[in-house]
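Appendix B, Record 12. Input sequence as logged:
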Amino acid sequence: MGSLARLFLSLILLGAVFFGWYAVERASPRPFASSAPIAATSSVPSSSAYVNASEDLIFATAPKPGATLTSTILLKGFARGSWYFEAVFPIVVINKDGMTIGQGQGRADGDWMTNAFVPFSTEIDLKAPYSGPAIIKLEKDNPSGDPSRDASLSIPVTLQ
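Logged structural output:
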């Protein structure tokens, strides 16, 4: 192999390494959520709460904490691949009395078998009409059932 061919091959390899690094950096968006504790009360907190998790594992881009929503909830965000199981994770909507008024699954919008952030989205329709404060709880999928592996992100909202 000639020196020109080796140089050309080296440049291609260097370009591939740089592109891989750039793609990983670009695919790791910065979250906005905080980790202050919340509770579903008559006043809706303006921050999210993490249990056994952090914004380095999952965060939502929509809805924002404190948002006022209708009975159809559109969720979007990013979660590390380990948050999913078979490309989904459970989501529940809880009213101020602690009752589940809606549920669904966050679905990976890409290859979830990675340690990088993977975008997710879903739409949840409430089971019955409800108006007032609520919590949208995004739960780490835990097929083991081991409570020590449970983790969640709770987003306080107001439903109309």
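The chain has two domains: 1-30, 49-159.
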